[in-house]
Write a structure and sequence with these properties.
Layout: H1 2-13, E1 29-34, E2 38-43, E3 47-52, E4 62-65, E5 71-77, E6 80-85, E7 89-94, E8 106-112, E9 118-123, E10 127-132, E11 136-141, E12 147-152, E13 158-163, E14 167-172, E15 176-181, E16 187-192, E17 198-203, E18 207-212, E19 216-221, E20 227-233
Antiparallel strand pairs: 1-2, 2-3, 3-4, 5-6, 6-7, 7-8, 9-10, 10-11, 11-12, 13-14, 14-15, 15-16, 17-18, 18-19, 19-20
Amino acid sequence: MFAERFRVRRNWLLGRYTVRTFEGHSQGISCVQFDEQRIVSGSSDKTIKVWDIRTNKPWSALTLAGHSATVRCLHLSGDRLVSGSADRTIKVWDLKNTGKDWSSAACRVTMIGHMHTVRCLQVDDNKVVSGSYDKTLKVWDLSSGQCCLTLRGHEEAVLCVQFNARRIVSGSADRTIKVWDLSEGFCINTLCGHHDAVTCLHFDDNRIISGSVDSDLKFWDIITGQVCLFLFLCTIY
């Protein structure tokens, strides 16, 4: 593992690399995921493409059609792909064995319940948590596609979300971050401090880091909701 990383880094620094372009979408690409075998892209052309990472030949790409509007977010985990769209739905796709037979991929579940674009989502083995322009978050049963919880509290679109075994953390165009109890669905804390939409975040057991259109990165104490001493100013494009 160390030798492989050293080789990749050395080749990158010395300019010994090849740029490969994957072409096939007819409109802009809005989201992407990848693993060791595949690149998955979602587009305004309403499709998802699954690319063999070893080749950029157009014939090698699988096209997943089913959404009726822009594919806005993706989560790839093993052979399971989950997509959210401006058509207000979430779809669960089975990519098992697609390396040998592209035609075996299929949409297994469609989740219906949001009233506007599904902007962000995260998935584990049992559930999907999604955030939408309808200002809500929803927790879904992955197998049945049924909505288990609807979380209300944001005053504008939900733009980013992450969860763990106990908490959901969401960022919104209302400039706030909310920490939710995953099992009961109530808001534990609301973090205020950004001056524009919160577009990305990540958290662990102790801290939340958030990025905003206000060009700031903020570190927060996840328990108290207070901003830590670390604050970086940057330009977000």
